[in-house]
Amino acid sequence: MSALAHNALLVLEDDIDSGPIEQALPPGSRVTKTALPDAAYLWSSLTATAADVDLVVFACDREHDRVLEGITNLTRQLESRPALVVLHTGSSNGFMEQAFGAGADDLITLPQPTHELAFALEKAIARRRGATTAAEEGVMITVLGPKGGTGKTLTACNLAVALAESGHSPVIVDLDLQFGDVGLALGLRPDRTIYDLAVAGSSLDAEKVAGFLASHSSGAHALLAPVRPDQAAAITIPFLRAVFEALRSRHDVVIVDTPPAFTPEVIAAVDLSSDICLVGMLDALSLKDTKIGLETLAQMGYDPDAVTLVLNRADTNVGIGKADVERLLGRKPDVLVPSDRAIPRAITDGRTISEAEPRSGAAKAFRSLSEHYVRVAAAAAGQAPEESQGRRRGLRRKGGN
Ligand SMILES: Nc1ncnc2c1ncn2[C@@H]1O[C@H](COP(=O)(O)OP(=O)(O)OP(=O)(O)O)[C@@H](O)[C@H]1O
Ligand SMILES: [Mg+2]
């Protein structure tokens, strides 16, 4: 671990002793201490101070809501933000999920031996630096769908294979930790899964993560979901962040398949993504949910340009025309995937539709989705400077990573 001095801001609830935190920072670190604000307007001067530090530590006992407000303020308002670590002495009781959901890099229960605390703070700073660097590297697409069965896994798998077939090196992460079926859809045996990686111990690096990936004949790779639902509990948010960072350093596109809910893991993936692929279906209820999904992403600070909209089963005759869809969603879907009976048959065989029926309309739709992301990846790699600048506005969340 580096012993470089840091510039740290400690935001302390009354009665919390900053001594042990200061001791855990490397010698020579510059420390600014301030009380946890108790009025909304006080956050603005704190945000200005936080813009110049590489670490913000919130230390609290009972004031969870004020800390969450602080994290949300900082993540929304700072373009390039410092590491955010929450130290707390009370019971975490749901606070942990909320803190990570708001954007905290780590949450640590006090008291801790000085060397443990020092290690955790260093790790958070290193991870934040890594995440910022990674955001400049490969494209990371989180595939979201407002409800179960809209076609997220179908889209994620077909996109991965289509990208591999066009010479890219995609990796798909199955974040449906309890009921993931990427392995089944791609015909891959779960010899090693994300659970095995999580319990393997020692630190994570790109090489280690590579040893836990399944290989598809197309050249795509996959980090498969645990084989049993109870194993999902071993997957933590800091672990996932490190996994995404490692994968982005080796693969030009990371695709994340998700369960049909905004779990803390999904929020963490969305938070780190450069792009979102929202998959909806053509029926009134699904369109309503897709609209809510678009609105939620806008509230989270995503530029609409970074959200690609896939309309699955787009040829279903339910009395909703193209104009109705555009009016309801306020935008045109980017890719239309037709219903095709060959799709469930292909899934049963563990094949993608482009492998089973390459000339089908569905296979063409997924190839066009892949071509869209090839352009995004090229722009991100700096091959198309004009497009890159345009995407940069779109790829970046307003609050930055
Ligand atoms: N365009 C389509 N044509 C025919 N069948 C389809 C189509 N899209 C999806 N399906 C069927 O719907 C099922 C659900 O699709 P998929 O597993 O991709 O949805 P999902 O959004 O990942 O679901 P979950 O939320 O449960 O993970 C698939 O097994 C497939 O058989
Ligand atoms: Mg799925």
Task: Give a verbal description of the structure.
This protein has 401 residues and is of the alpha/beta class. It contains 17 helices and 13 strands. Strands 8-9-7-10-6-11-12-13 form an eight-stranded mixed beta sheet, with helices on both faces. The longest helix has 23 residues, at 114-136. Mean pLDDT is 86; it is low at 383-401. Magnesium ion binds at residues 152-153, 176, 181, 257.
Q: What string, H for helix and E for strand, traces the elements in order?
A: EHEHEHEHEHEHEHHHEEHEHEHEHEHHHH
Q: Going across the major beta sheet, what is the strand order?
A: 8-9-7-10-6-11-12-13
Extended strand count: 13
Radius of gyration: 22 Å
Give a quick account of the main beta sheet: strands, pairing sense, barrel closure. Answer: 8 strands, mixed
Helix count from the secondary structure assignment? 17
Helicity, as a percent range: 40-55%
Cα shape: globular
How many angstroms does the end-to-end distance come to?
Answer: 23 Å
How large a portion of the residues is in β-strands, by DSSP E?
A: 15-25%
Would you tell me the overall average pLDDT? Answer: 86
Bound small molecules, which ones? adenosine-5'-triphosphate, magnesium ion
Uncertain runs: 383-401
Classification by helices and strands: alpha/beta
SSE layout and pairings?
Blueprint: E1 7-12, H1 19-24, E2 30-35, H2 43-50, E3 55-60, H3 64-77, E4 83-88, H4 95-102, E5 106-109, H5 114-136, E6 139-144, H6 152-165, E7 170-174, H7 182-186, H8 194-198, H9 206-210, E8 214-215, E9 221-223, H10 237-250, E10 253-257, H11 264-272, E11 275-281, H12 284-299, E12 307-312, H13 322-329, E13 335-337, H14 342-348, H15 353-356, H16 361-380, H17 385-395
Parallel strand pairs: 1-2, 1-3, 3-4, 4-5, 6-10, 6-11, 7-9, 7-10, 11-12, 12-13
Antiparallel strand pairs: 8-9
Helix pairs in contact: 2-3, 3-4, 4-11, 5-10, 6-16, 10-11, 16-17
The structure holds adenosine-5'-triphosphate (ATP) and magnesium ion (MG).
Residues 145, 148-154, 176, 260, 312-313, 337, 339-340, 343-344, 347, 362 line the site of adenosine-5'-triphosphate (ATP).
